[in-house]
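Retro notes
What went well: the complex prediction finally ran end to end.
Inputs used:
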Amino acid sequence: MTALRILTVDDSASMRQMVAFTLRSAGYDVDEAEDGKIALDKARVARFNCVVADVNMPNMDGISLIRELRQLADYKFTPLLMLTTEAGLEKKQEGKAAGATGWIVKPFDPEQLVATIKKVTG
Amino acid sequence: MAAIDLSRFQATFFVESREGLDAMETGLLSLESGNAEAETVNTIFRAAHSIKGGSATFGFKAIADTTHLLETLLDQVRGGKRHADSAITDALLSSVDVLRGMLQRAEDGQPDTHGDNELNARLSSLLDGTPAATVAAKTSTRFSKWKISFAPKPDMFLTGNDPLRIARELEALGKLTSTCDFGALPALRDMDCTRSYLSWTFELEADVERRKIEDVFSWVEDECDLHIDGIESAPAPVAVVAAPVAAHPTTTAAPSAPREKKEHADGDGSIRVSITKVDGLINLVGELVITQAMLLQQSANLDPGVHERLVSGLAQLERNTRDLQEAVMSVRMLPVEFVFSRFPRLVRDLAGRLGKRVRLRTSGEGTELDKGVIERIIDPLTHLVRNAIDHGLEMPEQRADDGKDGTGTVTLAASHQGGHIVIEVADDGRGLDRKKILAKAAERGLPVSESMSDAEVWDLIFHPGLSTAEKITDVSGRGVGMDVVKQNISALSGSVEIESHLGRGTRVRIRLPLTLAILDGMSVSVGGEIFILPLGYVIESLQPAVDDVKSIAGSSRVLRVRGEHLPILPMAKLFGVSAVRNDNARDGVVVVVESDGRKMALEVDELVGQQQVVVKSIETNYRRVNGIAGATILGDGHVALIVDIGALVRTGAAAA
């Protein structure tokens, strides 16, 4: 079986590296993007099984990214998760309205992240 | 899975957090000056947000706490709920400072356990004095058996959620029995396969808290009708006191502001490389240059007719080596902006403290300079800028009386001039007062006269006796004096000159070499050894006539050059090598050098030639040797010492 492909989107290099490293160690095939725009371009070219996006990013934020992705036929039912801080109740709702599957609350530890991804990718 | 060590990402976190703080600072200053673009607040917010996320993830709680407050405040500004007045910018700028310190301590392995309480209190009080609202945790009761009815709304699939996943998660908690209700299922031809028509009733035998189950459904809360009922108590209910979950008042998200096209300097694939790697590369290229010079020297005796291809190959090698060297050196080059960017903040704080109004102009930020040089001009430049504001610029009222703009201007400019970089610090203040300086100098017993040129008078302020005598204020009385500024610049093989007009302002011009790693040198031989004299100091070399050399006071001699008498420094004696020739310079050669405006004649045996040499540090490889600036390896493999002419002239002058 080929590894599931995950796209991690975050403008913070350390977070991105952490997420990518963690998921790679768990056996996923991970691609990285620095903002929503780059992520959208990547997602149009390749098919990802799950997208994990930060909310606050330059050029295109996570919520707009999710909204755009949901409109693509390939991503109609794909799990799209947002990384958010504990405070962002409204952000969560905004994200859901845009079509987010769910969220991962920051800070999270690596095990939690892997468990969540496992959960949504089945 | 095994715990993942997060420490490997910490270095990246520190680097990007520092960059974030720099961006916040720059953004805050432009916000204050009213030059902010729509995107500025967002940039500041994102920086705080990223630092908060990273610090929480990497376990720096105190940093996370402070940035959390910052973020909340910034979110309100961003959402237009609050105007970024000076109280807020002040608090935010202080936070930037505090966070820098906290990051440093965290990086040094002594993370703060508590944050800066004073700052946190200040931020909290700015936040409308609204204390963090405490939201009681949802009723958290524990049962051993649960009944859950779950009816997804038709469009639940469209968010990528799947009832099957939820069922699997419930199953992970305990024994699960499910009943599916097909009642809402339409006729096949009316069915839309992207919609959900089913609902379920689950019975779960799991001794868990209600929260556990609610968590499973948390993503779909609004997309389903959900009832969770505990139907059997656990045999021995455990008293669970739920810790109150702290939440803070959230504000509405900002309407996504029109995004301006942002230039991505680092967008097109730059990488971070440690300085030691770059220096390693530079060293290797240095070795290559030496090897290439050696080959060239060895091939000089070959008959070009016979070895045509070898000779042309060597010529090619020489070109390639030079290109490679330039390319590698350019890696170490940083834009001057690196230094200039710290001044807006300094100027702002200083102007505030002194009650002056100052406008800072910078130009030529893109001019590149060796990293080593850049780091060492920070202090001198800071001192010059402080001086310009403290002593140069007048108070606003006085400026108005003099018919000047009440806001003074300090200009920082960098540019390339030949093989040098010129950095200027200029102000439009009161200018230097020739009379006062002369009087002060005379008072200190310095040899001065009314007939001195302006340039000579301005040079006096670099004199140690004079610069410390300046009025000591809170601002420029601290730290380095002008003499130290000059010393620092000289240590970089640079020079400083001043131009000033009374009432119109002062301009300090610093000339620096592009790099410290390579220098143009004149090679001379003394007692069979080769020494390198940095070309920048050399004025001329000549073979003195017997009549021009005069002995004075025993052993020391002077040389008369066009009416000027210069002390002669016999290099052979100085460096303890035996001169090939007798030491009365009858048929020897002298090289006239100048440093800090003082000239001196160095006596050598012979001039060998001029060449670029790669500087190797003596200090790191051996120890510091007075009078020697470094060493280099010559084409024939011999080591030659590079003479520290600045030091020779200083000690020579002291001895004289």
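What we learned: Chain B touches chain A through 51 residues (CB under 8 Å).
What to try next: split runs per interface for comparison.
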